[in-house]
C-alpha cells in the first residue's frame, strides 16, 4: 500500500473480526471454484434496516415484495453472472499446447481454501485434482505444487497427501522432462496401492 494509514484503516474496518476474515476467504474460494458461475443462483439476504440506514424507502427497491408483515430480512437468489474459472484458458481446442494459465486461480485458491478451513474443497477440488497438478507441472511450478501439497497436509493431516507428495518427488525427473507422462507415471505408482486396498 502506498499509504500506511490506509492499510491500517482497512485492517481495522474489515479484518479485525476473525469470523469476517474467515467468511471473506470462503467467498473468494467459492469464486475461484466457480460455485456461482454458469447460471447458478446465489442467495442474497439483506436486512430491511439496511435500506432505512441508507434513506431508501421500500418502494424504491425493485426487488422488495409488498406484504403487510414486518420481516427483519428478505432472501432472494440471483444469477451473479460470474465467469467460469478454469485452470487454463484454451485459445484453440485443436491446439491444446497453446493456452493461458489462470494464474490468479492457481495462486489464490489454495491460499483462500486453507484460510477458510475448507479442507474437503482443498483436497478434492485442488490438490487431488489432476488438472491442477498437470497445469502446475506444465507451467514449471513443480516445487510450488509440492509446497501446496505439504501445506494442505499440515492443515488436514490426510495420509493420502503425504503419499502423493512422496510419489511426486520420486517421479520428478521424468515428469519435468516430459509433463505429458504425469498420468502414466502416477498410474504406474498408484495402481499397486489401490489394488491392495
Automatic annotation (TrEMBL):
Region (Disordered) location: 57-77
InterPro entries, per database record: NACHT-WD_repeat
Domain of life the protein comes from: Eukaryota
Basic and acidic residues bias: start-end ranges: 66-77
Name recorded for this polypeptide: LOC562320
Organism the protein comes from: Decapterus macarellus
